[in-house]
Specification:
Helix content is 35%, strand content 26%. The protein has 253 residues and is of the alpha/beta class. The chain has one domain: Rossmann fold (3-Layer(aba) Sandwich). Strand 7, helix 6 and strand 8 form a beta-alpha-beta unit.
Length: 253
């Protein structure tokens, strides 16, 4: 059996604020296997953001063990950590974080600028176009961010996260700036990627968005309080069809 994508063992994170110790995460053991689609939920101060920063190799545990795709993250220096992050993790953020005057395909190419060894320009462009096509934006590759809707910008951000073929896709409130229909469309992309074998971990505070995932981990006071499979899972294609039917019924009324 292959190693889990994520393995946390007694993970603790403590911040020092003056003379006060803030225990953000208090001893979490968590495993995410390949091909899972996990939502991490919790109120402000629950530890979920600290958890996401650690899973993304943006921060290190104060104590405990963290293996990413079998690699002990705690033992890596800063450069090794940056390389691991670029090779194995794709990030999708609430705010898109695109360069506004840069085309969609150029935004998607950005992570490959840090590849070691460097990729030829032709290969970078081919991989960026393939990623855009995966999210349904192959025909918008030459549009700048300002020429795209919010949903299209998030699709570009997802393509950018996929372009290095990561082992793990991390999404931090990816539907937070989107309307309801566009949010469902974005969750549909995540579901299709997951069906193709991509491991996805997503932070969200919206219970209805978490229901598109396969598993929900709820944190409170720095601890995992529940970890359950989703029994009545929402399927994006079905929800979009339902919305279309409701809209049509309203138009005919």
């Amino acid at each position: 059996m292959s190693a889990p994508v994520i393995q946390l063992e007694d993970f603790r994170k403590t911040y020092i604020s003056g003379e006060v110790q803030v225990h953000a995460v208090r001893g979490v053991t968590l495993t995410i296997q390949r091909g899972e689609f996990v939502a991490i939920m919790g109120a402000s101060g629950s530890g979920k953001s600290t958890m996401m920063n650690t899973l993304g190799c943006l921060d290190r545990p104060t104590s405990g063990r963290f293996l990413l795709d079998g690699v002990n993250v705690v033992e890596l220096n800063r450069d090794e950590l940056a390389d691991l992050r670029n090779q194995k993790i794709g990030f999708v953020f609430q705010g898109f974080n695109l360069l506004s005057r840069t085309t969609a395909v150029e935004n998607v190419e950005l992570p490959m600028l840090y590849s070691r060894p460097p990729l030829p320009n032709r290969e970078q462009r081919a991989r960026a176009m393939k990623a855009l096509e995966m999210v349904g934006l192959g025909d918008r590759s030459d549009h700048t961010s300002s020429q795209l809707s919010g949903g299209q910008q998030q699709r570009v951000a997802i393509a950018r996260a996929l372009v290095n073929e990561p082992k793990l896709l991390l999404a931090d409130e990816p539907t937070g700036n989107l309307d309801s229909r566009t949010s469902i469309e974005i969750m549909g992309i995540f579901q299709r990627l997951n069906e193709q074998g991509m491991t996805v971990a997503m932070v969200t505070h919206e219970l209805d968005i978490a229901r598109y995932c396969r598993r929900v981990v709820v944190m409170r006071d720095g601890l995992v309080r529940s970890d359950e499979l989703v029994t009545q899972r929402l399927i994006a294609s079905e929800e979009l069809a339902r919305l279309d039917a409701e809209q049509k019924a309203v138009q005919l009324a």
